Amino acid sequence: MDDIKKSNRNESADSIIKNHVVWSMGAGFIPIPIADLVAVSAIQLDMIRQLAKLYEIDFKQTEGKAIISSLTGSGLARLGARAVKFIPGVGSILGGVTLAILSGASSYALGEVFKKHFETGGTFLDFDPSRLKKYYDEKFEKGKEVAKEIQNEQKTKEKNANSSTLIDKLKDLGDMKEKGLITNEEFESFKKKLLE
C-alpha cells in the first residue's frame, strides 16, 4: 500500500474515532442510568463497524459486541460512577460530566485498539482481547485527556458564540439608541442586563 493511501486511511480512522468520542461523551450526559451505557455501547459498535469498513474487514456485530465487553471489562466500575447520578441536584451534573469523560475515553481506547489491530492486518477472527487489554488500558488513560480537550474545545466554541451574540445585541441596542427608539436610561438598563 502506498504511503499516501495509508496516510489518508489513517486520517479517516482518526476522524471516525474522534466523532464517536464526541457522540459517546454526549451519551454520557443521559441522566437515566443504564440508558447511557446502552447508548455508548451502540456508538462504540458503530465506530467499530465504520473502522472495519475503512480497513475492508468483514464486520460481525456479535463479535464486535463480545470484543467490546471483553476489553471494557464488567460494568461494575461504571455503575459505581453512575450511582452519582442518583444524588439529587448535583448528581446528574457531576455524574454526567464524569461519565461524559469516561464514555469518551472508553470509545477513544476502543477505536485506537481496533485501528492498530486492523492496520497490522488483523481481523475479527484473530482478535485477542487479552493481548490488547494493556494497550486498551493505556489508551483509556490517554482518552481521558483527549475527552477533556474535546470538552474544553466545545466550551470555548460556545463561549465564542455567546460573545458574538452579545456583541451583536449591544450593537443593536446602540443603533436603537442612536435612532431615538430608546432613551439613554433604557439603553443603560438593557446593556446592564445583557452584560449580566
Topology, pairings included?
Layout: H1 3-27, H2 35-54, H3 61-72, H4 76-82, H5 90-119, H6 129-178, H7 184-195
Verbal overview:
- The protein has 196 residues and is mainly alpha-helical.
- The protein has one domain.
- The protein is 80% helix and 0% strand.
- It is built from seven helices and no strands.
- Helix 1 runs antiparallel to helix 2, helix 2 packs parallel to helix 5 (90-119) and helix 5 packs across helix 6.
- The termini are far apart.
Helix content: over 70%
Counting DSSP E segments of at least 2 residues, the number of strands comes to 0
Domain unit count:
1
Mean pLDDT: 80
Shape: elongated
Major sheet: none
Alpha-beta content class = mainly alpha
Radius of gyration: 23 Å
Instruction: State which percent range the strand residues make up.
Output: under 5%
Q: Count of DSSP helices?
A: 7
Please mark out the parts with pLDDT under 50 across 5 or more consecutive residues, or reply none. Answer: 74-96
Q: How widely separated are the two ends?
A: 58 Å
Secondary-structure element sequence? HHHHHHH
Which labels suit this protein?
single chain, 196 residues, mainly alpha, 7 helices
Brief synopsis:
The chain has 196 residues and is mainly alpha-helical. It is 80% helix and 0% strand.
